[in-house]
Amino acid sequence: MNAPESEKFAVVTGGSAGIGEAACRALAADGWTVYVAARRVEKCEAIAQEIGGIALELDVTDQRSVDKLKELPQVDLLVNNAGGAKELDYLRDASAEDWQWMFDTNVLGTMRVTKALYPQLKEAKGLVINIGSVAGTDAYKGGSGYNAAKYGLRGMTRAFRREEAPDIRVCEIDPGRVKTEFSLNRFAGDEARAAAVYDGKLNLEAEDIAEAIRWVASLPPRVNVDTMSIMPADQAER
What we know:
Layout: E1 8-13, H1 18-29, E2 32-38, H2 41-51, E3 54-57, H3 63-67, E4 77-80, H4 96-116, H5 118-124, E5 127-131, H6 144-164, E6 169-175, H7 182-186, H8 191-198, H9 206-218, E7 227-230
Parallel strand pairs: 1-2, 1-4, 2-3, 4-5, 5-6, 6-7
Helix pairs in contact: 1-9, 4-6
């Protein structure tokens, strides 16, 4: 596959729902050819068909799955969105299995994907956008595992930016409370617990973060946006 020089290619991990899906749609509307990458390949295929993109089955915790990304001929933009949290346990009740999953997905998964696509990104003088969280700068009760993972992602992002500047631009976008499947996944499908996170509060929508991703990706190569924190107005007093 030889892409026209004018065509821009983006890979979005966790692209089957939430912020990832919204980012795929926003980027496609802005002229990008988007690889919609996630474990739920059927959903990726449906989204890709709607936006003129390409579906990829991808599990960021599986090195063999990630290695398939090396076959992509051109990548100008990587959005590392795949991630998540498990439970809301105090440290004294922490599950080592949940912590391992959070690190493997949020930190090691981002490393695996970025490393696999590094040659294409270097060749394109491309852009990497890592989706962090305000949890990476502001710890909260019950969040120690997720806080630790997102703090780790933040450190990795900043180091990578310094290592690769100016050849690869690196940005971190840190959302606050966004109403997606995040809490439903965190609480293992418990709809009541998930709904309680958002009830009676202002909540961002996935499209709000997608617009920030689209904007950063639209900037000229001379511009590197370091970090963006985006939260609903009632969370901004934190």
